[in-house]
Fold this sequence. Notes:
Layout: H1 5-34, H2 41-48, H3 52-58, H4 62-82, H5 91-101, H6 107-123, H7 127-153, H8 162-181, H9 189-201
Helix pairs in contact: 1-2, 1-4, 1-6, 2-3, 4-5, 4-6, 4-7, 5-7, 6-7, 7-8, 8-9
Amino acid sequence: MTQTPTRARRSRADIAAQTREAILNAACEVIAEIGLENVRMRNVAERAGVSTAALHYHFDTRENLFEAALHYSFGRTGADVYEARGGDDTATARLARIVMASLPTTPGLRREWALWQELWCRAGRDAASRRIAIELYKEHTDWIEETLRAGVEAGEFAEHDVVAHAQLVNSVCDGYGVHLMMRSPAVSREQALDAIWAVAAAPLGVTTPYPHARRR
């Protein structure tokens, strides 16, 4: 049976999208494992199971691939954070998810943190990397701000300086995240979650501890 031109185009588009996603997932894995400076395009192509020609069709330079991989990884984390957990989902529950997603608490989040650390190192000396870092930090801070505003509007959180508090929560997560990435014996995941939650919850009038169900 002959495919119609529209179906054939759709099929090619689906294949291209699947190839691109395989490349981005492979890039995240390889960069996190060996560092961007050690990555060669063929490493990513081999991990993705595609030809180097296919890789270069989607990404012409390693820098473009790195930027796309960062956005891809960050976007997947954001989708998980913002997925509603039933009709009784609250701003407090979502803030708890943001805190958890801001730390290297799972293999996937450790991989994302490894990408962030690559970006931090480059941002200090490279204007393009600095632009990406600022852009992604703004997106992450916006998640927190939106959640804090939603909580205030719902009467769930006390009035407070949303912008300043979002920056504070973000920064505290970064600090504890570095310790967890190093596997420092001084800070456990549980200690980090409790400490961040204490800072995050106090100005909101939230007195409950970090929700234990979110720790799994």
